Amino acid sequence: MQTIDKFNFAGKRAFVRVDFNVPLDDNFNITDDTRIRAALPTLKKVLADGGSLIIASHLGRPKKNPDTKYSLKPIVAHVSELLGVDVKFVPDCMGDATAKIAAELKPGEALLLENLRYYAEEEGKARGLADDATDEEKSAAKKAVKESQKTFTKTLASYADCYVNDAFGTAHRAHASTALIANYFDADNKMFGYLMNKEVVAVQKVLAETVHPFTAIMGGSKVSSKIEIIENLLTKVDNLIIAGGMTYTFTKALGGKIGNSLVEEDKLDLALDLIAKAKENNVNLVLASDAKIADSFSNDANTTFVPVGAIPDGWEGLDIGPETEILFANVIKNSKTILWNGPTGVFEFENFTHGSRSVGEAIVEATKNGAFSLVGGGDSVACVNKFGLADGVSYVSTGGGALLEAIEGKSLPGIEAIRGY
Ligand code: AMP
Question: Which of 192, 210, 242 is the last residue before a domain boundary?
Fold first, then answer.
């Protein structure tokens, strides 16, 4: 497989798919440029080698072409500043004018294409169907967009000599620019960017090259959204810590009293099933033993600590208790591979952050002692950032859905398109 480190971009035009889907305020100012900064090592390597850049991204969910609310134009100045070159911009990723500008790029020059998702062909999903469209109409529209997607993809590929995918956030989508385009480049001329490579290596270290004991901490709100992940992890981990809102579905299934705590009544059997599967696989399933409970869903609620299965009516568990913090920390500190997804409590409320912070701190300590730790998938990333612990873990993933699908054991189209599996 080709790698960006080995590749010499001198005299080459590189099509680099990045994730510049940054948040903008009402005046189109970037409010968080993390995603742009994350792609800089890849973009700078191409320019430093003497190559030229065709940078492509999506932004938001435009529904038509053009859809100026979702234009990438407002970010050009900032990208130029960070990259240290004047980035050219074209208001359409298709068309003769764009092809001409791409063809005339000189070494060291960079071009940013307008939002790829102005075109339905990027995602390959039919647009503009009437609400009462028949199944035949839907299927004809789908077929048509899949057909025109081939021309769209081929046109994007025609701008460049090589293809670099650095957009891990969309690696779970088989879109034109994230996966299909790779078919137009031979194996020597397509590769992951540095960011994508770091993500792939981190997931591999956790799921494929695991050093045991392996502990996964699954928090967050609902079991229903994590079933596939938990099932896949039960074939891989030594310890599975269940935390957050899903705790109470397990507790209730085991006959505990959970008061007003979050529960999925239709998942009680599933919880018992997962407990049985853990036993079958010799996995140590670790459930909370006490909870910090509140008399309303609010930061200012009255609180107290009780055993997790003895929550009085009118009260709800919003975080783990001190006994559970110690229980979880002991398991975490004895681990060599750690995956953390989802907070242990309602961390948005300051008074219910203690459990998530203690899990984060235990992970940092284990990491200091040589464990590999991966934190990812939404709110646990917000947690480590909020508690200033990001530098103490081995890797914080940038991918939400993409990381979760990778943990579910699915193969991601964006990775497969380059690696071949
Ligand atoms: P997820 O997106 O599944 O990772 O869930 C994250 C959300 O779970 C956060 O918004 C937390 O506030 C929420 N959460 C965590 N613990 C609890 C709990 N005990 N009760 C209700 N919500 C919770």
Answer: 192
Q: Are residues 286 and 334 in the same domain?
A: yes
- Determine whether 35 is an active site residue: yes
Q: What 3-state DSSP class applies to 81?
A: helix
Ligand 1 within 6 A of CB of 376? no
| Residue with tokens 């507790």, as numbered in its chain | 251
CA 137 from chain center: how many Å? 34
Q: How many domains does the chain have?
A: 2
* Residue 401 is a catalytic residue: yes
- Report helix, strand or coil for 271: helix
Average pLDDT over residues 245-269: 97
| Catalytic residue list contains 222 | yes
pLDDT in tens, 190-233: 999 999 999 999 999 999 999 999 999 999 998 888 988 999 99
Question: What distance in angstroms lies between residue 219's CA and the mean position of ligand 1's atoms?
Answer: 7
User: Could you say which of 44, 127, 154, 222 is catalytic?
Assistant: 222
Residues 159 and 279 grouped into a single domain: no
What is the rounded CA–CA span in Å between residue 149 and residue 151? 5
Q: Residue 345 Cα, ligand 1 centroid: separation in angstroms?
A: 6
Q: Are residues 320 and 234 in the same domain?
A: yes
